[in-house]
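Researcher: I'm preparing a figure for a lab meeting and need a structural model of a single chain. I don't have an experimental structure, so a prediction will have to do for now. The sequence is pasted below. Please return the structure as C-alpha cells so I can convert it later.
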Amino acid sequence: MKQPTDVAQFSISTNPIKGPLKWVGMENIKSPIQGFTKDSIPAQISALVSLSKGDQKGIHMSRIYELVQSLSCKTLSKKKIFETLDEMVATQKGSSDAAKLTVKAQPLLQRPALLSEKMGYKSYPMQIHGTRKKNTNQLVVTLRVEYSSTCPCSAALSREAIAEEFMKRFQEGKVDCKDVEAFLTNESTWPAWPHSQRSQAQGHFLLNDHQELPDFSKLVDQMERALGTPTQTAVKRIDEKEFARLNAQNLMFCEDAARRLKAAFQNSEFKDFKFWVRHFESLHSHDVYAESRK
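Model: Understood. Here is the structure written out cell by cell.
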C-alpha cells in the first residue's frame, strides 16, 4: 500500500534556485477590527515574515492566517500586536527572524459644521504598522486628513488686481460709500480671485517604549487644528462664509502646512514623527509635496 506523502518534505526546496527572502506572507486579509474607534470596523491586514533559511521552500501561511483572525476577537492594543509579531516568528520554527503586521482601515468620524448645528461624516484612512526585527519591536501609526489650501501668491496677485480696478473706477478723488459697497459686492466688478485646492496631510507617528495606542480621533483633531481649514461635510450659508474666512486667514504654501504640523507635534510624547503634505494644484497639472520630521 502506498504511504501518504509527508507534507513536511515540501518545506525543503528542490528548486535549484535557493536563497533567503526578505518578506513572505499575505496582504489585504479582511477582518473586523476594534482599535481605531470604539466599534469594530472592516479592516485589511497584511502579515509578513522573513524567510531566513535559503533551503526553505516557503513559510507556514495557515499558522499566520489563524493568528491574524484571532485579532478580530479582541480589542487591538500595543501589547496584543507585539505578542502577535512574536508568535508569527515562533510559528515558523526557526525559519524566520523578523515579522511585520499592518492593519489598515477607514473609520467614519462624525464632524460638526463650523458654526451651525449641521453634522456629517468624513472618512479618515488610518494604519497601525508593527515590526519585529532582531528581537526588537516597534509600532507606527499613520493617518491622513484633508484640508483646503489657498495660495498666498494667488491671493496677493488678486489683491493687486482688485486694487488696480478700484483705482480705475474711483480715481476722481471723492468716493461715495454706496459706490464702494456696490463695487465690493458686485461679482462682475472683481477682476481676479485667489485659487484654492483640496490638499492632504499624512502623519506618521512612532510610539515610544511606554506609549500605548493613541486616541486616533484626538490625533485627527490636532492635525486639523494645526492646518486651520479642514474640509467640511454638511454646511449652511454661515458655515460656508466662515470657511471662506478661515481660508483667508490661513493662506499657505505646501511648505507652510508641513511646518505647521511639525510645530503642533514638536512637544508630543511620540518618539519620532514625520508628515507628508500634498497640495493638488489647481493652477498646475502637477501636485506639490513637502515633508517635515521631528
